Amino acid sequence: MPALAATRRGPRERGFFTFIEMLLATLVLALAATATAYWVETVNGLSMDADEQTVGQSLVKVMEGIVAPLAFREPGGMNFGPEPGEQLGDYDDLDDFHGLMASPPLDFQRQPQATLAEWSVAIVVEPVDPETLQVTATSDLRRVRVTAERKGRTVAESWWLRARAPAE
Fold this sequence. Notes:
Elements: H1 2-7, H2 11-14, H3 19-67, E1 101-102, E2 119-127, E3 141-150, E4 153-163
Antiparallel strand pairs: 1-2, 2-3, 3-4
């Protein structure tokens, strides 16, 4: 009997891992790899969202730079929106831009930016009541909304109010 006991060795004495130990080690490695992949995907998604936000906000700022300095309305004009025969390059007052949908978006020279073909910019100009800010037929206050979209999803948006100056 003593000779038989001397030939039996435990798992640690053999120098190998047991099946259960290998299974647990594999499970831990698989969980670590999955968590790392999820983290990398999340970081990449956040980076792409941040890039989209930056481009969208830049497009909105470009449109603000085009529209904001314009006259409140055409001198003596009662037309809301572009005057008959007026083209984008001729827009000279705020309400001319009402309903504009530019895809691809415009640059400061009002030229399409072909490299941004997936993007669009929309402008809505509405006369609003000064007290309630509800849309009204006529008013000396305009609400301007500029929206930048990519593939149909709104990425950036800006709203502001513009009042008619006494001289306009």
